[in-house]
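Lab notebook, design round three. We kept the backbone fixed and only want residue identities now. Task for the bench partner: fill in a sequence for the structure below.
Input structure tokens:
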């Protein structure tokens, strides 16, 4: 049965008490113990593993996610993230020693990661389990108390998280608040030590304004239009497989899905043919019958996507069924970079192909727009690759593959400019939820008087040589 989200006033009234409860337990020092954090992370892993099929069911109800996608991009992704964190948490928590200059000898200099306090994590609907729990894993590892607020749009996933988390984790330190605008607004009135938000630009501004009232730092994981540049000097078959995989996973509702492709005019037809072959190989001639093809989250997003097709040159797909929220894999070829579909982030199963005269024009095109979250480049041309990497700015880059950088916990993930601020995953996530406290410890052994008044020319000359 699909659930519906309903406003619950008692949740809103409870929020200030929940936050002060968590603050009290943070102050008790409970989360400082690494062993205690390890136990919480192990419990979270257990929760994911023991309830795998329930997560699959919720993701299927929310987005028609296949089991394989639900495992690779949500449950399995998180289990592997927890394993990585458990493997490194003791090392990440250690003092980070740095050299001490001669003038401060004898002495020791280091930074010590300490938890920030009580943090708020606000999730998005498109990967409702991954995007809620991946920052949560980092917050737990770093020793924080946390309130997590899943997106109300993926209501089955949100409800499941709210049911399971209190069964496995310590409720004195971690709470799930479900709800939408009213609940989030009530949460944002409270003071947190950090707010981690995943979602769109408009709400990000609301979050940042609310955070400014308390001088709370924010991490904003946003989106935007992620370009993909395809050079004709590429392995077309593999390129097509990787573009189709990364574009139509979750029916295109992925923040780092390629939004549009820049390709030289003479290569457009070959690329479109290669893409359609792969789409049909992956999802069949009618993707509606495929168990592996997702559905649009709700009718508001469905109608937004439908508008993008108006007056466009649809060269593949364009089949829709509003009752089933089914929107087929669709390709548009367009010269018009001012159309609605090129002005807004697509965030759905439409791929725009923009023919360009010369591949070098791609760099100019990308640089004339907001800095993207991801940029993709498919090429065998090393010189072109260097040119693109050096002359464009984006949160992340995939060269000759789509989205795979997400799967490497050693790489930070985050945006730049309008695609976000701050980053996470692996150690970067641990650091995002930590304060790296600077410590210099001096010995009482020598106390050179050079720095103390009264000053004179000799002291200054010696200092000039030393520093
Ligand atoms: P959404 O509608 O689920 O909103 C995100 C969160 O903001 C939800 O928890 C929601 O309850 C809350 N919210 C909504 N309106 C609010 C308001 N007025 N005040 C306070 N809180 C409010 O998600 P969305 O915005 O539709 O997400 C889509 C966007 O997120 C896209 O731009 C996508 O690219 C981006 N995204 C980015 C990442 C990333 O990792 N960088 C991941 C997924 C999605």
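Proposed sequence:
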């Amino acid at each position: 049965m699909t659930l519906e989200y309903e406003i619950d006033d008692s949740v809103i009234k409870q929020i200030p008490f929940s936050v002060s409860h968590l603050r009290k337990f943070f102050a008790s020092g409970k989360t400082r113990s690494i062993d205690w954090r390890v136990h919480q992370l192990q419990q979270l892993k257990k929760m994911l593993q023991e309830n795998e099929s329930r997560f699959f069911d919720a993701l299927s109800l929310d987005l028609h996610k296949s089991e394989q996608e639900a495992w690779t991009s949500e449950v399995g992704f998180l289990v592997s993230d927890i394993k990585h964190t458990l493997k490194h948490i003791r090392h990440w928590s250690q003092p980070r020693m740095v050299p001490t200059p001669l003038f401060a000898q004898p002495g020791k200099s280091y930074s010590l990661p300490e938890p920030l306090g009580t943090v708020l994590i606000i999730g998005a609907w498109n990967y409702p389990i991954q995007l809620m729990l991946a920052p949560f894993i980092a917050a737990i590892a770093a020793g924080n108390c946390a309130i997590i607020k899943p997106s109300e749009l993926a209501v089955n996933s949100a409800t499941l998280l709210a049911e399971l988390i209190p069964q496995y984790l310590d409720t004195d330190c971690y709470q799930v608040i479900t709800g939408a605008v009213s609940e989030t607004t009530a949460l944002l009135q409270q003071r947190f030590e950090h707010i981690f938000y995943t979602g769109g630009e408009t709400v990000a501004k609301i979050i940042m304004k609310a955070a400014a009232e308390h001088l709370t730092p924010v991490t904003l994981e946003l989106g935007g239009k992620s370009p993909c540049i395809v050079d004709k000097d590429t392995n077309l078959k593999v390129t097509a497989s990787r573009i189709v995989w990364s574009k139509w996973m979750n029916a295109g509702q992925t923040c780092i899905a390629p939004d549009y492709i820049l390709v030289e005019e003479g290569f457009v037809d070959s690329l479109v043919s290669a893409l359609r072959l792969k789409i049909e190989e992956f999802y069949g001639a009618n993707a509606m019958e495929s168990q592996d093809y997702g559905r649009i989250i709700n009718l508001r997003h469905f109608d937004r996507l439908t508008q993008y097709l108006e007056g466009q040159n649809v060269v593949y797909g364009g089949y829709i069924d509003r009752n089933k929220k089914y929107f087929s894999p669709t390709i548009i070829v367009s010269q018009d970079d001012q159309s609605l579909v090129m002005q807004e982030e697509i965030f759905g199963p439409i791929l725009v192909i923009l023919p360009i005269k010369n591949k070098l024009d791609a760099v100019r095109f990308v640089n004339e727009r907001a800095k993207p979250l991801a940029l993709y480049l498919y090429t065998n041309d090393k010189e072109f690759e260097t040119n693109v990497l050096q002359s464009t700015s984006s949160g992340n880059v995939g060269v000759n593959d789509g989205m795979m950088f997400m799967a490497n916990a050693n790489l930070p993930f985050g945006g730049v400019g309008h695609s976000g601020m701050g980053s996470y995953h692996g150690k970067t996530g641990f650091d995002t939820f930590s304060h790296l406290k600077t410590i210099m410890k001096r010995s009482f052994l020598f106390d050179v008087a050079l720095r103390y008044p009264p000053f004179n020319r000799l002291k200054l000359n010696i200092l000039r040589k030393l520093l």
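Keep this in mind before ordering anything: The longest helix spans residues 67-93.
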